[in-house]
Amino acid sequence: MLHDKLDRYFWRLAKSSSRPANFQVLVRSDKLNVDYAFATNSVHQPFHIASVGKVFTTVLLAMLEERGLLSFDDPISRHLPTSILSGLFEFGGRDFQSEVTIEHLVGHTSGVGDYFGGKVRQGKPFMKMLLDQPDTIWTPTALLAFTRDRQTAVGSPGQRFYYSDTGYILLGLLIEAVTGKPFHDNLHDLIFRPLGMADSYLMFYSKPDNAEVSAIEEVWVNGKEISAFTSLSCDWAGGGIVSTTSDLITFHRSLREGRLISAQRLRELETPRHKFRPGIHYGLGMMEIRFEGFFFLLRGLPRPTGHIGVLSTFMFHDPVHDAYIAMNMASTRNMPRGFKAIIQIVQALRAVSTATEKQRDL
User: Fold this and answer.
1) Out of 46-50, 303-307, 356-360, which region has the weakest mean confidence (pLDDT)?
2) pLDDT, tens digit, for every residue of 23-75?
3) ∠ at Cα 309 (325, 120), nearest 5°?
4) How many CA atoms lie within 13 A of 148 on its CB side?
5) Which of 138, 142, 193, 237 lies 20 to 30 Å from 171, alpha-carbon distance?
6) If residue 48 lies in a helix (H) or strand (E), which one and from where to where?
7) Which CATH code, of 3.40.605.10, 3.90.1150.10, 2.120.10.30, 3.40.710.10, is assigned to 54-185?
8) C-alpha distances in angstroms, 47 versus 25, 245, 345?
């Protein structure tokens, strides 16, 4: 029932879409005996997961915290030099770099600007540079320089929620400083390799453990296909991971099973603290969907936790049905379609749960 219903939905969605129409969907629930996959190309094709990668950066930090190497309460100036932090946290005539904590960066309350989507006080916005300069290699240093030279801080630490990719570049550098090894090595050594995520890697910095490196799925930004652009190097610790739907579910399941961090710490990360958008609330590096924020008649649906990416990438866990959802719609223009698809999936899971309960009562 679920398979047929979702197949019809996604095929209609693909046929009604222009570019791209190459969706990838994977839904797994042991509780409901559901293992659903859909793809117009291949569900196994690696894809750029965009800001879903922020969960990986956050989990790395939590793992290092539980090993005693840092605390989320640490001022970032304890781990990063002034040469990196200078000019990023000046607001109202003061420099707040010594007051910013790791938690401020993880929860997007540090006040630092956002190179990817924030306003610029001079020059071109970053998104235009991404598309107009496809051969540019964006190093972490260059990304910080963009915010330092072209943007301004938006507040003092803890004053307001302001989603910032710049903050996650700083977190990647902090992880390197604490561990003494590159960010991508931390991903492979602490997450990818122990969990058997052999198709996952950090684009431009590492390779998957699988012998073959497959071409990634198409990446559409504002109507332009950019999967071969070197300028995609702009994501790094804020979302530069390439993965598959299966690997994402492996990661998310392992996270919830306590194989990476404690259950208590995960609950703390998932607990909403701020509203990101109507219907989406933010904790520490993780989101919670509240469907009633999209439309009041959706009240009563489960509240999945996970993260989205600007390329309409999704990784969520439905706590009511213990279901894991990984999805790639490969385009900045497909975000509304993506959320509608999540609603369809959750409603289909609820229908399976209801039917199962009825059979049990017979």
Assistant:
1) 356-360
2) 999 999 999 999 999 999 889 999 999 999 999 999 999 999 999 999 999 99
3) 165
4) 17
5) 193
6) strand 47-48
7) 3.40.710.10
8) 12, 9, 21
Q: Domain 2-53+197-361: state its class.
A: alpha beta
User: Is the separation of the CB atoms in 179 and 237 below 8 Å?
Assistant: no
- Whole-model pTM? 0.97
First to last CA, the chain: 19
Which tokens go with 299?
């009240």
Strands (E) in 69-143, as ranges, are 90-91, 94-95
User: Residue 227: which of 241, 213, 215, 210 has the closest Cα?
Assistant: 215
CB-based contacts of 119, cutoff 8 Å, min separation 6: 125, 151
Residue 361 has pLDDT above 80, yes or no: no
359: exposed, middle or buried (Cβ count in 10 Å: 0-12, 13-18, 19+): exposed
